[in-house]
């Protein structure tokens, strides 16, 4: 009996449990799904503002376009005038008369070693063969040249032997006379720039790179302006960058007119136009600056000859000046020979004669070419180009 009761109780419990599960499942199926929750949107931080934009906006009265008063007519346009570029003032060059005398102190500082050395040797009590050899060495070291040195020593030996006694004053006078004979006092050293009725004076300046040729041309323009001439500059050095600018700057300082062409253009064409412009303007002198071509470049030397031939279609050249660097010594003679073969050199311009140059180069280059030294450069100043004066030069060599 007890087993039956126990079985009934278990059955009731199982039925009750199954009924509860069934009811719960139905309830869950009947409930509608919960609505999705709206996400919270966080506004991005405001951008920082500066000045009036940082203030809180205020309600302002706004007007329509019809209510705004517009100015009558168009606003005036302000046109700015370009700045006026003032021309550089015209300089008045230093007079050329006696210029070398005024520059004598500058010349003597570096040149009188030759004269003092000779005076010291000649003042010895006994002038034996060894002393005369020293005198020869002194002259050769000063770039006088072999043949001029031998001639000078021979004349000095003869005159000293005849004089017998040799006071310092006598020796100085003796040496001055012989050096003047060697340098030459009878050579025509005038730079020919006189205009004629049908043509101006025509001067062509030639030389090797680095001798100061363009600068010398500009300084020569100053020399001519100081003597009352009107000058046209022909920038026929079309191969060196800024050569035409450099020459034009020199010309503007003294009121000279510059004719130039395109960079890398035909130098002969520029030279031809320069002479043509000078004739049309009625100016006195035209100075033609040519390229500083190396004397070893055969083609370039031929071109220099072409420039000369083209210019002479107008009229013959009055001067062909060869610019030499006095510090190059005997090497300058090699340059002089080659240039003389291409164009007929009429005069020499020795630059940098106040530096380490030796005064004997004046004698050597004149002997080599048979033409005189006409101008010498004695410094970097604008008026340091001077006409060559033998007496002033020799006095600077031997000192006071």
From TrEMBL:
Record keyword Membrane present: yes
Biased composition (Basic and acidic residues): 49-66
EC main group: hydrolase
Binding site for GTP: 207-214, 289-293, 351-354
Annotated keywords: Cell membrane, Cytoplasm, GTP-binding, Hydrolase, Membrane, Nucleotide-binding, Receptor, Transmembrane, Transmembrane helix
NCBIfam families: ftsY
Function: Involved in targeting and insertion of nascent membrane proteins into the cytoplasmic membrane. Acts as a receptor for the complex formed by the signal recognition particle (SRP) and the ribosome-nascent chain (RNC).
Complex formation: Part of the signal recognition particle protein translocation system, which is composed of SRP and FtsY.
Protein name: Signal recognition particle receptor FtsY
